[in-house]
Write a structure and sequence with these properties.
The complex is a heterodimer of chains A (about 425) and B (about 300). Chain A is an alpha/beta fold. Chain A has 13 helices and 13 strands. In chain A, the strands form two sheets. A seven-stranded parallel sheet of chain A has the order 3-2-1-4-5-6-7, with helices on both faces. With about 300 residues, chain B is mainly α. Chain B has 13 helices and eight strands. Classes of the chains: A alpha/beta (about 425), B mainly alpha (about 300).
């Protein structure tokens, strides 16, 4: 009997990457592999609930609940105002400190990760993150990079800079942003390169924190929103998935006392939920629209009272199952959210607040699959008008129907699992010389 | 008398919901026959209330009746069945149900006056008072000095969910360990059948509503079989509050099945009179159910744990 290959999935400590990996792991399991998860402290149980074995980075890495709560309060106070800034203004205020924190994490988990990988002895590792962990590169097995951010994460002269929210045509602005990005991230990058050197990994170019995998790189970006590239990515090691939507539990529609209008889902991800004032203002607008709204309040449900009769608030939703039933998805441009909207042919109203949300917002509008609303620049009247316009846009709906049909016919999760097993098989053949 | 009639109707509505859930979990389709005897056994009641519930379901076009053949299902799984269940839920405690549902959805404030509720629901003061009395029997509202009524804390926030698990972790094993625990074998057998059907159901037939129903019956059974009256009373009130507080859930199907299998393991131990083992298994079951989802996390930012999963 052949042993099932053990595939260790190591997503960053966020729901986007984590649940994206759940989708791939579900298919790996179906295709005969043994997917397991390496979890950051605090993510205990998230993957076990989907039936996967979890290996945890040590609890000591996690601060006490009280310290984490304090950190969050401080984070909210510091960064909430930054979410209203434009991408270039966010570089110094939000992006640079975030990269510093990412580098800190990579350095702090390295020894424990190395020990954990030695214990798991995986046949392959799937890394869904924005930074390289030397322990992964040196684990002695093939590793796969999952680019679950926007396609801009892989630079190219014709692709706008990562996190810029710019159009490819805006060449001058792109050049300015790239320069500012490299300047803002220089200190973190220098520190990271020193760490890599100590761990025996080659230096990376300015602004780059994660190299492509020599084995396989999986990109979520569906063809409907892809960029033209000057340097084509090699077909054998770069695979574009048509999204990566996981199988989720059935969503039970709540009762709305007020109306039976179209269903609209609003979620800004777990981080975006901290902006309760913004969501409260939006709910006031929703109350004036003859539609039903499902709003993800994340961990802040207690901050809301007087919920209108056409709004249902919750702290967590099986998002793909909800999006499948909606007429419009209002989100922050997170790549999973955007891909899920495209997968189910649902228009996006993107209100970005940071990171690649800016890139996806630009792309949604440019490709006619959604509209962008500036987080700080809307009034009740303009938001209402945007929502109504999207609900009535028949052309966009037709376009999205085609996109959805194509994506659903080419399951990204299924393809990802197949490609991972193929890469593993090729790597083994390479080792034994039988390939 | 009116109260007795009302209670009888309530139990018929409740049974009708149970019958429809069982029919759907068994994968029954429109046109399938519903045998009285089989439903009497699975619901643990005699054929008379089953017949009354069937009749009620016929009134609501969920079943149809054929001379000398019996009752047949009229609705299909999915939208039709969901609507039928909603209709039944609306009929159940009608106004009390709507008030409770709106409070759970944070649509109405914690403190309410009868006149404000009468205005919101277009109902008479007497109807509102009756609804509040029904809710007060379950400890969900309490009358304040004067005319106001206050909703008691529901299990609807991370903190209250955490406290609920703490309470249950103390009380449910104790319910089993208190000397004199006596398992109701007949009801346990019915629950076992339902749990096994749930475990054997196809993925697309798994519903949170179906899980919640069996889960609630299981934990209520444990409380009712306890010999300690105070533990029993405390748990039963708490389970009623849990039932009232629970809304849509998003627990993945894997965990729902795992939790159902844990129920079966606990029943196995109880049937063998292995109470220490059953109590330990209950602790494991509750600890697994309370695993907390991080509420927010992003690049480089530590996850924040605000509360357990419902």
């Amino acid at each position: 009997m052949t042993r099932k290959p053990t595939i260790a999935l190591f997503p960053e400590a966020g729901f986007g990457a984590g649940l994206n990996c759940v989708g791939i792991a579900q298919k790996l399991r179906e295709q005969g592999a043994n997917p397991v998860f390496i979890c950051h402290p605090g993510f205990t149980g998230v993957f076990a609930e989907y039936g996967f074995k979890e290996y945890h980075l040590p609890q000591s890495l996690r601060a006490s609940d009280e310290a984490t709560e304090d950190y969050w309060q401080s984070f909210i106070t510091t960064h909430l105002p930054h979410f209203k800034l434009n991408p270039i203004e966010q570089l110094e205020t939000y992006v640079a400190p975030t990269w510093e924190a990412i580098v800190d994490t990579a350095i702090s988990v390295e020894d424990d990760l190395e020990a954990l990988l030695d214990r798991i002895k995986p046949d392959a590792i799937l890394l869904d993150n924005v930074i390289m962990f030397p322990a992964v590169a040196k684990a002695g097995c093939p590793w796969v990079r999952i680019v679950s951010c926007a396609e801009t994460e892989l630079p190219d002269p014709k692709v706008p800079p990562y996190l810029s929210g710019l159009a490819p045509e805006a060449a001058k602005k792109c050049a300015t942003f790239k320069k500012a990005y490299e300047k803002a991230t220089r200190a973190a990058h220098k520190r990271y390169n020193e760490f890599r050197k100590k761990r025996g990994l080659p230096q990376l170019a300015s602004g780059i924190f994660l190299e492509p995998s020599p084995n396989l790189n999986l990109l979520l970006a569906p063809s409907a929103i892809r960029y033209d590239r000057e340097q084509q990515l090699a077909d054998d090691s770069f695979v574009f998935l048509e999204g990566c939507v996981r199988q989720e539990t059935h969503f039970e529609m709540p009762d709305f006392p007020a109306t039976n209008g179209p269903l609209i889902y609003t979620s800004f991800g777990s981080l975006g939920a901290i902006d309760t004032d913004l969501i409260r203002r939006m709910i006031d607008v929703f109350a004036t629209i003859p539609a039903r709204f499902i709003v993800n309040a994340g961990g802040f449900e207690e901050s809301y009272e007087h919920i209108p009769d056409n709004v249902h608030l919750g702290s967590w939703f099986p998002q793909p199952s909800v999006v499948a039933d909606t007429a419009l998805f209002i989100h922050h441009g997170g790549n999973n959210s955007f891909c899920e909207a495209l997968f189910f042919g649902v228009p996006s109203l993107v209100m970005p607040y940071c990171w690649d949300g800016h890139d996806n917002a630009q792309r949604a509008e440019a490709k006619g699959v959604g509209r962008r609303v500036d987080r700080a620049g809307w009034s009740a009247k303009t938001l209402r008008a945007e929502i109504v316009a999207l609900l009535e846009d028949g052309e966009m709906r037709t376009r999205l129907k085609e996109t959805s049909k194509m994506m659903q016919a080419n399951s990204g999760t299924d393809r990802a699992a197949r490609e991972v097993l193929r890469a593993l098989s090729e790597a083994r053949c390479g080792e034994t010389g039988t390939g | 008398m009116p109260e007795t009639r009302r209670n009888t109707r309530q139990s018929h509505i409740s049974l009708a919901k149970q019958i429809l859930n069982v029919a759907l979990e068994r994968g029954m389709k429109p046109g399938d026959h519903l045998p009285e005897q089989a439903f009497s056994e699975v619901c643990g009641v005699s054929r008379t209330p089953i017949r009354s519930a069937f009749k009620l379901m016929e009134e609501k076009s969920i079943l149809h009746w054929r001379q000398e053949e019996g009752y047949f299902l009229s609705v299909a799984a999915g939208g039709q069945a969901a609507k039928a269940l909603r209709d039944l839920e609306e009929a159940e405690d009608s106004l009390a149900h709507r008030i409770l549902s709106d409070r759970a959805e944070r649509r109405i404030d914690e403190v309410q006056s009868v006149s404000a509720l009468a205005r919101r629901y277009g109902a008479s003061r007497n109807a509102v008072l009756l609804a509040l009395k029904i809710l007060s029997q379950d400890g969900i509202v309490a009358q304040l000095p004067g005319r106001a009524w206050a909703f008691q804390p529901m299990i609807d926030s991370p903190k209250s969910i955490d406290e609920s698990f703490d309470f249950r972790l103390t009380m449910e094993p104790q319910a089993i360990l208190a000397p004199g625990f006596s398992l109701d074998i007949k009801r346990a057998g019915l629950l076992r059948t339902q749990a096994e059907e749930f475990l054997n159901a196809d993925e697309e037939r798994i519903t949170h509503g179906g899980f919640r129903r069996i889960d609630n019956e299981f934990h209520v059974l444990i409380a009712q079989c306890s010999a300690n009256r105070f533990v029993r009373g405390g748990l039963l009130v708490h389970h009623r509050l849990r039932k009232a507080s629970r809304r849509g859930s998003s627990t993945p199907n894997f965990r729902l099945r795992q939790a159902m299998a844990e129920h079966l393991e606990i029943l196995d131990s109880l049937e063998r009179n292995q109470f220490d083992l059953a109590a330990d298994q209950m602790v494991v079951h509750l600890r697994r159910s309370r695993i907390r989802r991080p509420e927010a996390a992003n690049r480089g930012i530590p996850p924040l744990l605000r509360g357990p999963r419902a």
